[in-house]
């Protein structure tokens, strides 16, 4: 790491991974953090139970299932049953975590989630793994790109997209205690570790990971890492970019986002999700009504994914550092008009 | 066997509930008629005889849990809850009105005694399984009762739950299907044939008891029998007459999803009052 970059990291202050800008930054799928967090949550509270729909290993529910076999329920390939059984358990005093791939849950069982979890207002935790285009070779059927939109539309639902495995662990522990219907999306592929155990995490509180005044990138999931790279790179071009890790899409941190709109005057949102009704949708709904500024929304452009390696797909679908950089430059131009 | 005075008490109660169902539906101007009238005897038996519950403490920790899966028959649930003391009978006339606790389909949290929100069909048995699993984990004394329609046996979600209840041997779960042979679009045999329904449940590891859903002794005996069966969930397949007690509604699927007009309600109440007098005069 160059001395300038090391100094820059100190200035950002949210206690991020010191190796963040190194080539050998640790790579861990966020689902791993969930697996660790679930065991810890189970250690803390005997009312935590876990249910899975025949994907126990790949969703990282396995460690909990082994440690607490009496509190683990294998539901089989039945996602509607997965969430409705969980609803009944939550109604009777348990805190169920239900895991599957995000295309199946909350994809296949949306109405059951709406009626029996959200309208009932019971604390079921829906964990959707394998979200985003970076799922890779499995192709479009298994790449959830609409999950945040359908969960964000539901009253009572909390929606979280952690930026790395450590944040996924913290989010797991936090939703175990929040008493609300909650959805968390996770990545299949290995993604850079951006945070440390010391990085602050609070549901509903976005964190400024990089200070800047010319424009703001608001990102979630692994797009936070790319955004940090872009902010660092643009600094060398005398462009000062703020980066906000917006891990909670609902409730949205309006204070941090409106401050960014006011102080930087332009926003780029980035997410591994359709451009409609995800993070970009949430931010623009807020900003358009309270402090309109030029915006660009990066995500998949209203189309399905396909098979390929994660990096190839991110490039093909326009979610690279270069895409973010171009968006920032164009937002700054829009500001100046 | 019920003693004659207990039998007469339940029959009169079910008749009163049917009369109030007609009154609330005509006042609401929309809602379902046939199913609620058909299930009045089973609801009366459950709330006045079978369930361990306390209307003055709806959250009683060791209460039996009753999940109404087919939420559209809520007029019979609401009326029974009011008659057994959960809330004033006068509130029944607010059904489906703005600001009412008596939503068009039941909502947990709006009205005391409602265990879960329902209406969209096919998800009540799964929720009941979830509760029964908790009952097993916690060694609880309470039991779970799930009331379903025959129409919602069309739903895949129902069979996912049937399979799970067999797997986990949920002998603290009793499901009751209102086998009235009608659904909105017509007779169940025409819409989506279900038979042999009891055999299907048996093949998934359930104990199945078929009864006349208007015979109080049969209802109570079936529930008692279910309590003695270990390692299996029980299905009570209750044959009922939709629209029971009102001759022009009985067995006519067109009465599944509509309320009576004022004139039809008067006629229906005349018939139900006549039945009430017969019960009172009976020497049993």
Query: Total domains of chain A, how many?
Result: 2
Shape of chain A: globular
> Helix proportion of residues of chain B, in percent?
40-55%
Shape of chain B: globular
Radius of gyration of chain B equals 18 Å
The domain tally of chain B reads: 1
Please tell me the CATH architecture of chain B by its name: 3-Layer(aba) Sandwich
The overall average pLDDT of chain B, rounded, is 97
Helix count of chain B equals 10
Strand order of the largest sheet of chain B: 1-2-3-7-6
Q: What fraction of residues of chain B sit in β-strands? A: 5-15%
Spans where pLDDT lies below 50 across 5 or more residues of chain B: none
CATH superfamily of chain B: Thiamin diphosphate (ThDP)-binding fold, Pyr/PP domains
Commentary on this structure:
The complex is a heterodimer of chains A (337) and B (284). With 337 residues, chain A is α/β, with parallel strands linked by helices. Chain A folds into two domains: 3-25 and 198-336, Rossmann fold, CATH 3.40.50; 27-192, Thiamin diphosphate (ThDP)-binding fold, Pyr/PP domains (Rossmann fold, 3-Layer(aba) Sandwich), CATH 3.40.50. In chain A, 39% of the residues lie in helices and 18% in strands. Chain A has twelve helices and 14 strands. Chain A has helices at residues 3-12, 30-44, 62-67, 79-91, 110-119, 147-152, 165-177, 223-235, 254-264, 279-290, 310-316, 321-336; strands at 27-28, 48-52, 72-74, 95-101, 125-129, 158-160, 182-185, 191-192, 207-210, 215-219, 241-245, 248-250, 267-274, 295-300. A seven-stranded mixed beta sheet of chain A has the order 3-2-4-5-7-6-12, with helices on both faces. The longest helix of chain A is centred in the last third of the chain and has 16 residues, at 321-336. Chain A starts with a helix and ends with a helix. The mean pLDDT of chain A is 95. Chain B has 284 residues and is of the alpha/beta class. Chain B has a single domain, classed as Thiamin diphosphate (ThDP)-binding fold, Pyr/PP domains (Rossmann fold, 3-Layer(aba) Sandwich). Chain B is built from ten helices and seven strands. Chain B has helices spanning 4-28, 34-38, 40-50, 74-84, 124-137, 156-167, 188-191, 197-203, 216-228, 262-281; strands spanning 65-68, 144-149, 173-179, 182-183, 186-187, 207-212, 234-239. A five-stranded parallel beta sheet of chain B has the order 1-2-3-7-6, with helices on both faces. Chain B has a two-stranded antiparallel ribbon with strand order 4-5. In chain B, helix 1 (4-28) packs antiparallel against helix 10. The radius of gyration of chain B is 18 Å and the shape is globular. The model of chain B has no long low-confidence stretch (mean pLDDT 97). Classes of the chains: A alpha/beta (337), B alpha/beta (284). Chain A binds chain B through residues 49, 70-71, 73, 75-76, 78, 80-81, 84-94, 96, 111-112, 115-116, 119-121, and chain B through 65, 67, 107-109, 115-120, 122-123, 126-135, 137-138, 156-157, 160-161, 163-164, 168.
């Amino acid at each position: 790491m160059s001395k300038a970059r090391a100094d820059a990291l100190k200035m950002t202050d949210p206690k991020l991974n010191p190796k963040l800008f190194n080539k050998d930054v640790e790579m861990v799928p966020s689902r791993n953090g969930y697996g660790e967090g679930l065991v810890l949550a189970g250690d803390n509270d005997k009312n935590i139970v876990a249910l899975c729909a025949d994907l126990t290993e790949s969703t990282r529910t396995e460690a909990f299932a082994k440690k607490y076999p009496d509190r683990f329920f294998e539901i089989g390939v039945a996602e509607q049953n997965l969430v409705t059984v969980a609803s009944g358990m939550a109604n009777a005093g348990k805190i169920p975590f239900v895991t599957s791939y995000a295309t199946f849950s909350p994809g296949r069982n949306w109405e059951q989630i709406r009626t029996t979890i959200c309208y009932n207002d019971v604390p079921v935790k829906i964990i959707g793994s394998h979200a985003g285009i970076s799922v890779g070779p499995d192709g479009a059927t298994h790449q959830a790109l609409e999950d945040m939109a359908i969960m964000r539309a539901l009253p009572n639902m909390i929606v979280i997209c952690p930026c790395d495995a450590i944040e996924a662990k913290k989010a797991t522990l936090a939703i175990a205690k929040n008493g609300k219907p909650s959805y968390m999306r996770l990545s299949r592929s290995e993604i850079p570790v951006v945070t440390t155990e010391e990085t602050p995490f609070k549901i509903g509180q976005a964190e400024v990971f990089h200070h800047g005044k010319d424009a703001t990138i608001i990102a979630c999931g692994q797009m936070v890492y790319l955004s940090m790279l872009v902010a660092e790179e643009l600094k060398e071009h005398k462009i000062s970019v703020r980066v906000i890790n917006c891990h909670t899409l609902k409730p949205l941190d309006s204070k941090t986002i409106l401050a960014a709109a006011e102080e930087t005057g332009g926003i780029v949102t980035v997410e591994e999700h359709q451009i409609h009704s995800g993070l970009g949708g949430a931010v623009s709904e807020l900003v358009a009504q309270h402090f309109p500024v030029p915006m660009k929304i990066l995500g998949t452009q209203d189309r399905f994914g396909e098979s390929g390696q994660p990096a190839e797909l991110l490039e093909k679908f326009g979610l690279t550092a270069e895409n973010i950089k171009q968006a920032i430059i164009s937002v700054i131009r829009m500001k100046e008009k | 066997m019920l003693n004659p005075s207990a039998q007469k008490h339940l029959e009169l109660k079910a008749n009163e509930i049917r009369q109030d169902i007609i009154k609330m539906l005509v006042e609401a101007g929309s809602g379902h008629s046939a199913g609620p009238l058909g299930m009045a005897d089973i609801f009366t038996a459950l709330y006045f005889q079978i369930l361990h519950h306390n209307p003055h403490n709806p959250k009683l920790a060791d209460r039996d849990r009753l999940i109404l899966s087919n939420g559209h028959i809520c007029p019979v649930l609401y009326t029974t809850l009011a008659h057994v003391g959960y809330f004033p009978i006068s509130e029944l006339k607010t059904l489906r009105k703005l600001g009412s606790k008596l939503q068009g389909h039941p909502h947990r949290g709006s009205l005391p005694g409602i265990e879960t929100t329902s209406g969209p069909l096919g998800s009540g048995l799964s929720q009941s399984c979830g509760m029964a699993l908790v009952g097993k984990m916690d060694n609880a004394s309470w039991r779970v009762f799930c009331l379903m329609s025959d129409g919602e046996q069309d739903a895949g979600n129902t069979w996912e739950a049937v399979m799970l209840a067999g797997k986990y041997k949920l002998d603290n779960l009793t499901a009751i299907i209102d086998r009235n042979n009608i659904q909105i679009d017509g007779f169940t045999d025409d819409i989506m044939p279900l038979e042999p329904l009891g055999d299907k449940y048996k093949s998934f590891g359930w104990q199945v008891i078929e009864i006349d859903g208007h015979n109080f002794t049969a209802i109570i005996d079936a529930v008692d029998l279910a309590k003695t069966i270990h390692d299996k969930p029980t299905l009570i397949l209750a044959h009922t007459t939709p629209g029971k007690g009102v001759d022009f509604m009985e067995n006519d699927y067109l009465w599944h999803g509509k309320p009576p007009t004022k004139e039809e309600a008067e006629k229906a109440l005349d018939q139900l009052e006549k039945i009430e007098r017969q019960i009172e005069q009976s020497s049993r």
